[in-house]
Specification:
It is a single chain. The chain is α+β, with helices and mostly antiparallel strands. The protein contains 26 helices and 21 strands. Strands 1, 2, 3, 4, 5 and 6 form a six-stranded mixed β-sheet that branches. The longest helix has 32 residues. It is extended, with a radius of gyration of 34 Å.
Length: 697
């Protein structure tokens, strides 16, 4: 553990003007507050924040960050408060400590909700100041280094999984590759102990049989470049066990067939020397086509810059070579942290582009599972590069489509997308983009995101925005339906209902506004009786609603406007039900065909006689047809059938008409009493989590 004077000396070594008194105060404060607390290893608890502060000095971070690292557990684990921190160390350090503290106060929540809520608070906190993330990554790295001291295997695996799923990808996204690699290695050892032991054992065998081969290859590379007049540093290493295991798993390869186990790094003096070195290496050794990547001209979103190539060395050995300048190397290893060194006056905005996307996802996500899904999509996937027609560069995950591209440019553009051109050609919106594609998005003034897009978009930002838009549209539709039903309910009250009565009804029902009431009515969350009673108290005392419609089923449908004895049929194209406005088409020698007035097929009967019809008072059950899109998973059909049954209706037929992963669409015929009955079932279906979309045909 670093002693007090050692920590201060480290900071003073790169920042001679650092406030020594403040750093000493922070060190003593954390030692006093944590007192006799112990870690699982048996070490004093304060050794942990001191070691995290040491990690921050390795990154040459400013004194406020060092103090935050020292104090980051005091509010959570001692009697200290944020007010105490602010009184002793000022508002900036208090804000940073609060940002780190907020991440760990929800242990009582279920695991998925806990992880999601941690992530939500984490992203929001670091959107204000990226140093919150840097301290948290240091905190997690040191905890992983001491993870083996925890006795419970289940707890070790949970922490390791959280590290692998969230913190290692976040370290990669801010370019802190050293942190990422070590976190992955330590988590891999806990999650896959047998694979870890096997791979490390095989690497040890290779080292014992190596006879200095790595050093020999590094020397050969350096000599080849020196002969070309280039002064470089060359180092070689084995790839990390997790990196090898991941390649084996992705390509279904045994260890013996993983050919590029060795990686070499060439450090040059300038960017020009990087390209010269690459040319020399490609001349001396054969390079492997498709393995060259230029991250200097096109950096990764986290600022990573380097040339990558793979060569075939002697005896058909494949080796990977990375070529970069000294400045690039520091930025690549420590990423965004390198920009926070104490000398920097033009510190970067914490809201870097990918982080802004994550904040949008936080705002758009509906529940914990969605948040985790969308955020992991945003921080995990390999990237491709696509361009706007004006040359702006956008990085997207592999498999991204023009819709993903549109949302990456701006959420409003994504929502207005109606088409796309890729490299000047009109292409379907589900077309996967390739590296270097030029994408032009075609907008529509009345366009809105489509539910079907969820079947092919891959970015978390696009999925979150589409789901939010679809939910809002569904809510609007249900509220509009509820408004129509409300008018019918209000008409049945014994008194005229005005705005005042509606305001009082909202208070009685505990609802915020009129839209909430209309949605509740449309979604069948509230009964007609309850609405009537809220509008006019006492109005339902003598009103008896009969929910059992089975007595109507034996009644024939009665239609006004037909002469006695005239035969009729209900049209199959529009399935009219009592309550619809109807007309009849009379063809010579045929029965009268009854249509919904809005039926599109009426245009085909324009030369036939039209009869103005209405439903009679004895109208019984009729068949309505719905088109219902379900999430294609176990139990959703049963849920749909239960909704119909709970609303006192029968399913007459069910046909699957379309499958488009992850959705399945069904045409369902339902026997109902009237339009209000069918409308109530439709709103209940739309309110179900099993149903993505429901419409009347």
């Amino acid at each position: 553990m670093l002693r007090q004077y050692e920590l201060v000396e480290r900071v003073k070594a790169y920042d001679p003007d650092a406030d020594e008194a403040m750093l000493n105060h922070a060190y003593v404060y954390t030692v006093q507050k944590h007192g006799t607390q112990k870690r699982a290893s048996g070490d004093p608890y304060f050794s942990h924040p001191v070691e995290v502060a040491g990690l921050m000095t390795d990154l040459r971070l400013d004194q406020q960050t060092i103090a935050t690292a020292l104090l980051h557990d005091t509010v959570e684990d001692t009697l200290a408060t944020i007010e105490d921190i602010e009184a002793n160390f000022g508002p900036e350090i208090a804000r940073l400590v609060d940002g780190v503290t907020k991440l760990s106060k929800i242990e009582q929540l279920p695991e998925n909700e806990r992880a999601a809520e941690n992530l939500r608070k984490f992203l929001l906190a670091m959107s204000e100041d990226i140093r919150v993330l840097l301290v948290k990554l240091g905190d997690r790295l040191h905890n992983m280094r001491t993870l083996h001291f925890i006795s419970k295997e289940e707890k070790r695996r949970r922490i390791a999984r959280e590290t692998m799923d969230i913190y290692a990808p976040l370290a990669e996204r801010v370019g802190m590759y050293e942190y990422m690699r070590e976190m992955q290695a330590l988590a891999f050892e806990q999650l896959e102990p047998e694979a870890f032991a096997t791979i490390t054992g095989r690497l040890a065998e290779i080292r014992s049989q190596d006879s200095g081969q790595v050093d020999a290859i590094a020397l050969a590379i350096k000599q080849a470049l020196a002969e070309a007049g280039l002064s470089v540093e060359v180092s070689g290493r084995e790839k990390h066990p997790y990196s090898i295991w991941k390649k084996m798993a992705e390509r279904h390869l045994p260890f013996d067939q993983v050919t590029d186990i060795f990686a070499f790094r060439v450090i040059t003096e300038s960017v020009e020397d990087c390209y010269r070195a690459m040319g020399v290496l490609h001349t001396v050794w054969q390079f492997i086509p498709g393995k060259f990547k230029d991250y200097i001209s096109t950096p990764k979103s986290n600022g990573y810059r380097s040339l990558h190539t793979s060569l075939i060395y002697e005896n058909s050995m494949r080796v990977e070579v990375q070529i970069r300048t000294r400045e690039m190397h520091r930025t690549n290893e420590f990423g965004l942290a390198a920009h926070w060194a104490y000398k920097q006056h033009d510190r970067p905005d914490g809201q870097v582009g990918w982080l802004r996307d994550l904040i949008e996802i936080v705002d758009a996500s509906h529940d914990p599972d969605e948040l985790l899904e969308h955020t992991r999509l945003a921080i995990y996937q390999d990237r491709i590069f696509a361009f706007s027609p004006k040359g702006a560069l956008f990085q997207l995950p592999k498999g991204a489509t023009p819709v993903d591209f549109a949302f990456a440019v701006h959420t409003d553009l994504g929502a207005a997308t109606v088409g796309a051109k890729i490299n000047g050609r009109h292409m379907p919106l589900r077309t996967p983009l390739s590296n270097g594609d030029v994408v032009e998005i075609i907008k529509g003034s009345e366009a809105e995101p489509q539910l079907s897009w969820l079947a092919f978009v891959v970015t978390g930002k696009a999925r979150a925005a589409i789901r939010r838009a679809v939910r809002n549209k569904e809510r609007e539709d249900i509220a509009e339906l509820g408004s129509k039903l409300y008018d019918q309910i209000a008409a049945r009250t014994p008194a005229k209902v005005g705005k005042k009565a509606l305001r009082e009804a909202l208070k009685r029902l505990g609802m915020e506004d009129e839209e909430d009431l209309m949605y509740a009515i449309g979604a069948a969350e509230i009964s007609d009786h309850e609405v009537m009673e809220a509008l006019v108290p006492g109005s339902t005392a003598d009103f008896e609603e009969d929910p059992d419609w089975t007595r109507h089923r034996k009644q024939a449908i009665s239609i006004k406007g037909l002469k006695s004895g005239n035969a009729y049929t209900l049209a199959e194209c529009c399935h009219p039900v009592p309550g619809d406005r109807i007309v009849g088409l009379r063809r010579k020698g045929e029965s009268v065909e009854v249509h919904n007035i809005q039926c599109l097929s009426l245009a085909n009967g324009i030369d036939n006689d039209w009869l103005d019809l209405d439903w009679g008072s004895r109208s019984g059950m009729a068949t309505g047809r719905l088109l219902v899109t379900l999430y294609d998973r176990r139990g959703t059909i049963a849920e749909m059938a239960n909704i119909v049954a709970r609303n006192n209706a029968d399913v007459r037929s069910l046909d699957k008409v379309r499958i488009e992963d992850p959705f399945a669409t069904y045409e369902i015929d339902i026997e109902v009493q009237d339009l209000a009955h069918l409308t109530r079932i439709l709103s209940a279906l739309r309110a179900s989590d099993a149903v993505a979309q429901a419409e009347r045909v």
